[in-house]
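>> Question from a student workshop board

For tomorrow's exercise we were told to take the sequence and the ligand below, predict the bound structure, and bring the output to class. My setup keeps failing. Could a helper post the expected result so I can at least see what it should look like? The ligand is S-adenosylmethionine.
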Amino acid sequence: MSDPRWNDVEAWIRERVIPDDDALTAAVERADAGGLPSVQVDPTMGKFLNLLARMTGAQRILEIGTLAGYSTIWLARALPADGRLITLEYDPEHAKVAEENIAAAGVGDLVDLRVGAALDELPRIAEAGEGPFDLVFIDADKDNQHNYLAWALDLTRVGSVIVGDNIVRGGRTLEDPENPSSQGMLRFMDLMAADPRVDATVLQTVGSKGWDGFALGLVVE
Ligand SMILES: C[S@@+](CC[C@H](N)C(=O)[O-])C[C@H]1O[C@@H](n2cnc3c(N)ncnc32)[C@H](O)[C@@H]1O
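>> Workshop helper replied:
Here is what the output should look like for this input. Compare the format with yours to find the bug.
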C-alpha cells in the first residue's frame, strides 16, 4: 500500500527539517552498490531516533539489526564523546558495508559492531555486564521481535527507552497472523502489554516505506 501524497509530504518534511547529509547519502549509495536490501529506516525515522537519543541523554545504545549502518549513524551522532553504541548484525556482507559507512561518517570510535545472530550475542552482552542500555532499537529479523524485547527488558533500567520497528507492516501483522514475521510482532505486542516493566504505545507511520508503525516503550520498573 502506498500513496504518492505520502512521498510528497515526506519530501516537504525533509526539505525543512532534515537537510541533505553527505555521509548518510553515501551510506545508502554504498548499500545499494553492494546489493543490500533497501530496508533501512527512512530519514524521518532516522532523525526521530537521533532526537529521541538526545532527548533522553542516551550514553549507551543497543541496536539489533545494523544492515548498512544507516540508523546506526543517526543514533551514534546523538552520543557524547564517551558514549557507546553496540550494534548487532547477522550477515557479514551487511556488516562489511556498515563498517565502511560508520567509519566514513566519523562515528567509528563510538560504535561497536558485532557480527553474529543477535540471540547468540545478547547473552554475551548480558554476561559481560555491558548493560544497562539507555536506548534499545530493535530492527532485525521480525520473527524474533518478541525475543529481542525480552532481552531489551533485561538489558535496560528504569527510564530506558525501547523502540521496536515494523509493528504494522502494511497491515500484514493483523491480516496474516500465521506469518512468522506477524507472529513475532503479535508476540512482541503481547509481551509489551503483559510485562509490568514497560509502558508503551505504537505510532502508525506512512511515507516512502509505505504504511508501518513503531512501538515506543518506557521502562518503568
Ligand atoms: C531492517 S534491516 C536493519 C536496518 C537498519 N536498522 C537501518 O535502519 O539502517 C534488518 C537487519 O537485521 C539483520 N538480521 C537478520 N537476522 C538477524 C539476526 N538473527 N541477528 C542479527 N541481525 C539480523 C539483517 O541481516 C538486516 O541487515
